[in-house]
Amino acid sequence: MLWKKGWFRTISILCIATLLTGAFSGCSGKTSQSSTGEQSTKNSSLAGQSTPVSFSWIVTYSGEQPSDNNSVIQELEKKTNTKISIQWTPMISYGDKYNVLLSSGQLPDVFLVTDLKSSAYLDAVEGNQFWNLTSYLSDSSEFPNFKNFNSVTLKNTQTDGKNYILPRERVIKRRMVCWRADWAKKAGLDAPDTIDKLYKMAKTFAAGDFDGNGKKDTIGLLLGTVSDGGGQTIDCLPELTVANGSLNTWGVRDGKVVSYVTTPEYMNTIKLLRNMHSEGIISDDFAITKTTSQVSEYIDKERAGLWLTYTIPGLQDPLYISKKKNDPNLKRSDLYGYTFMKNSSGQPRIPAETGFNCGYAISKTSVKDEAKLKQILKVMDYVCSTEGQNLVSLGINEKHFQKTGDTTAKVLNKDLFSAEVDAKTNQMSMAGGQIYDIVDDSLGEQLAKDRKQYATSDLISDASIPLISQTYATKNTSLNKGYDTALFKYILGQTNDSDFKAAIQQWKTDGGDQIAKEYTEAYQKTQSK
Amino acid sequence: MRRKSNSVVFNIVNMGLLLIMALLCLLPFLFVLAASFSSPDALAKYNFFIIPKGFTLNSYKYVLLSTNTIEKSLVVSVVMTIGGTLINLAVTSLMAYPLSHSNVFGYKVIMRLVTITLVFSGGMIPTYLIISTYGMLNSFSSILLPTAVSASTLIVFISFFRSIPSELEEAAKIDGCNDFMIFLKIVLPLSTPLLATFTLLFAVGHWNEWFNYVLYIDNGNKWPVQVILRNILSASNSSIGDSLMMGEDYTPPQDVVRYCVIVIATVPILIVYPFLQKYFTKGLMLGSVKG
Amino acid sequence: MNSSVTSVSPSPPADTSAVTVSKPSAWKRIKRDKWMLGMLLPGLLIFILFKYVPMFGLVAAFQNYKSYLGFFHSRWVGWENFQTFFNDPSFFQLLRNTVIFGVYKMIFVFPLPIIVALMLNEVQVNWYKRLTQTFIYIPHFISWVVVASLTVTFFASDNGVVNNIMGTHINFLANPSTFRPEIILQQIWKETGWGTIIYLAALTGIDPQLYEAAEIDGAGRWKKLWHVTLPGIRGTIAILFILGMGSFLNMGFEQFLLMLNPLTRNVGDIYDTYVYEEGINNGLLSYSTAVGLFKSVASFILVVISNQVVKALGEEGIY
């Protein structure tokens, strides 16, 4: 047909034209980048100590938009003699923006790396896009405060044995069980810190009518779902598996790295959940209850009194406020209880957090020479000092917060704190061990203390954190998709034991075994050092 | 009267069905509206309601006064919406009119080019690179220019313009008008329903735009109200994990705030429609063909 | 069936053959069309600068794209990315789901705005018409996040509004067999009112004298609908149909990402969600570009075919 010929011609001409123009703009794109690079090099050679160093830093935030006159940033600039150009980016859009920036090679000087396992990141490391910070981190003469980093966290955030990012440290002991203390008191139950006690409390709550609405509609154990890169999985599942004797997602057994999915204790945990569902203790809807949006709704509506979580409801929690209306002396500890899990022999068994949440890398394409790098690292070093940590995380003493003890503080000006610090400058914090705990009441104080007290053996970490597996990077998403469906179906009683076992086997053959193998190899390499 | 209505039953059924549809569409929005004026614990107690429970303006105060950038962003929104809509209307209609004549030089090539962009696109990253190369980053042009015309709206415009009777154009040509004057003086006035429809469509598109701002513009002062509002909601939905060091005592904005944000984000543009409604009927001018 | 308004192009039929002697030379035509060409220049520039030039990025589909190498130095791998895609175990599931949704969309979602526009057109009471019109397009403004959360509020098996009213415990949301109807119903609810706007604008373009003539011929309501109204908007329906076929495979991933849960994944996973998850989570630009390119080619074929079909039925197509 005539039109076919015409199309072919048109399209091929257009293709050639496009490639040519693209080539032209691609090249000029690179030059515009390098010109900014030259500018910053000039700055650093002129600098000495009098001219402030200037660099750009992308920081995520959520909530209200930070103003240009953020007093914390100004204080930071004063203390370090710098001019920091902060690119505030909303947290929800950072993922997309980061991908675009990374893929197009147009990064600011300091930027946040979100996933140390993604192909994009690994490729960028391979392509020499980031400065290798390992030697600077251990240089205590020039950078005395980098020692404040937790050495295990530094190890966990290495890629190929080298440090490319400055991790944002986070609390390691975090996952716990929360429940309605007033309900438990009525039922005469103590803290559900073992699987058996947890089951008992869930059963009691589900059978009774503790919210007093006349209906037996209470959910015994409230579970939520959370995204796992391929779909949704059960939030806080490791809490139960670890307490039951299994692993925190990945662990080492007999010198090999294995997934908890292949352990018998995991199977027992899932079977328990299945039984709980058939007994009506776990709701039918748990498969669609998203943790980020819906779990707290259930709690506020008093539909559930027992749940797995990372935090306890705060002082502004709607349920607490409405209960307080009837009883002004109500303390948070009267309403909520928390505990960390133990195994059946009474030993604490808590799934450890990774110890960090993302980290900051320094781009080699924007920061062209070592002199500039060192100047930026000096600023980072200050942020890692006790003074710096508290500056970015809490603000200015007597302005945003007030010290109430050696290691505790309280927020002075809530509006200013939320406008300048909370979810804004506190995103800049890296080493975090010296930050004062914000405590508002006895429950908060108790929790802050509890979080810092643990023996290393209490915390079970995910062994895969410092390890790389290429198969994981490419196949994890699709593996999860298939497996998650099977998991939920099994718990909801829609499939039987053999179906579920078959799904686990499928996961193994489709890639799970390969990932385990690669992790084991990587693990054994670290052991032989 | 254009036609006799000879069936009362038909009218009742027709209007009745429309009423049901209208209510189904309206009720959820009434809920959102009512919830936004209610007290926070009302949502904890009730699932669904259309009259505010515990009427309060606190949530609106929280959203509107919590940040000093709301006024600035509203200005940005309004200006960009008006400007963007005008640009869209101008560029699209100017390009569509010639293409409604298939004998124009280059017609086939251009139409094929346009059709290809209907389904093929370079993607976010190459587009970002190009905009960066053109030096448009951090400028409003990165929002206004790439979207000035799109294949699908262009095609609809072309289809509408095709239905303008050629006798009118020929008559004007005889009177000495060039193509541009025909476009301005004859075609545009006859196309008021089309222009009114797309004024609304373009305006809504510009009003709702937020992603491109965050991608191309780093300066928060240039962001429209949609970005600001989304951020107020974002706290508990962050996918980059937690937003806090302390791990507790940070309460995400309550549901009520979410509903306030929705109302603030949608009501202004909803108001535009009634003003445009009257232009939808102007097409009656087509009767002038015979004259 | 002829359109009620003439749509004949003002000059002799467009001549596709390049060898006719009577066609004026290229320069003459450019001179003749100088105003037209000037008018379409701004739009054309936008197309070229912002839609065509970035298409060089499509080469990533044939490369092993690495960001530090960019588009021009990354290694060529030919069809490898496509092969990986076709060999992916979920390929057929994705294809099946996407096509089924596309078909549902064209059968259920596409015709409704036309029907509703016609219904509105029949209403004589002006204020009633305007009022209902305004109400039915409100859902378009409610974001998917809210629609998803309202869906949960209404249809949760546990204390959802619908289950409460009916006194039942039906699981609407975590059920694979209700997932597709849910999605389609949400789309109908959200977009029907909005879609009527274009058809209403088209309806105003029908010459009232044609109605009068039909009246005189003794035509009743339904006859008028069939012989005057529908033919009057045939052109618009045709164009929107072709455009709809062009986005046959697009389902808008935001709605899906919000509504999908582990139990409904195998009926709900579509290309758009797949590309989003693979691209964003794994940062594999090459792969997601390849998948997107495949989709574009398929959509293009659909557009061309539907354009030909429409023309064969006597209407004007896109080109």
The number of helical elements of chain B comes to 14
Q: Helix-strand pattern of chain B, N to C? A: HHHHHHHHHHHHHH
**Secondary-structure-derived class of chain B:** mainly alpha
Total strands of chain C:
2
CATH architecture of the largest domain in chain C: Orthogonal Bundle
Radius of gyration of chain B: 24 Å
Instruction: Assign an overall shape of chain C.
Output: flat
**Name given to the CATH architecture of the largest domain in chain B:** Orthogonal Bundle
Mean of residue pLDDT values of chain B: 81
How would you describe the shape of chain B?
globular
Strand order of the largest sheet of chain C: 1-2
What portion of the residues of chain B fall into strands of 2 or more residues? under 5%
Global mean pLDDT of chain C? 84
Query: Could you please say which CATH topology of the largest domain in chain B applies here?
Result: MetI-like fold
Distance between termini of chain C?
20 Å
Bin the helical content of chain B. Answer: 55-70%
CATH topology of the largest domain in chain C: MetI-like fold
Write structural notes for this entry.
The complex is a heterotrimer of chains A (529), B (291) and C (319). Chain A has helices at residues 2-47, 71-80, 91-104, 119-126, 134-137, 151-156, 181-187, 195-207, 237-243, 264-278, 291-300, 318-326, 332-335, 370-384, 386-394, 414-421, 442-452, 470-491, 497-527; strands spanning 53-61, 82-90, 110-113, 158-159, 162-163, 165-169, 176-180, 225-227, 232-234, 250-253, 256-259, 306-309, 336-339, 350-351, 356-362, 401-403, 408-411, 437-438, 459-460. Chain A has two domains: 40-171 and 355-435, D-Maltodextrin-Binding Protein, domain 2 (3-Layer(aba) Sandwich), CATH 3.40.190.10; 176-351 and 457-527, Periplasmic binding protein-like II (D-Maltodextrin-Binding Protein, domain 2, 3-Layer(aba) Sandwich). With 529 residues, chain A is of the alpha+beta class. The longest helix of chain A is centred in the N-terminal third of the chain and has 46 residues, at 2-47. In chain A, 47% of the residues are buried. In chain A, the strands form eight sheets. Chain A has a three-stranded antiparallel sheet, with no helix packed on it. Chain A has a three-stranded antiparallel sheet with strand order 12-7-13. In chain A, strands 16-17-18 form a three-stranded mixed sheet, with helices on one face. With 291 residues, chain B is mainly α. Chain B has two domains: 1-56, no CATH class; 57-290, MetI-like fold. Chain B has 14 helices and no strands. In chain B, helix 1 crosses helix 14, helix 11 (192-208) runs antiparallel to helix 14 (255-277) and helix 13 (225-234) packs antiparallel against helix 14 (255-277). By secondary structure, chain C is an all-alpha fold. Chain C has two domains: 18-61, no CATH class; 79-312, MetI-like (MetI-like fold, Orthogonal Bundle), CATH 1.10.3720.10. Chain C is 66% helix and 1% strand. Chain C starts with 25 loop residues before the first helix and ends in a 7-residue tail after the last helix. Mean pLDDT of chain C is 84; it is low at 1-15. At the A-B interface, helix 1, strand 2, helix 3, helix 11 and helix 12 of A face helix 2, helix 5, helix 6, helix 12 and helix 13 of B.
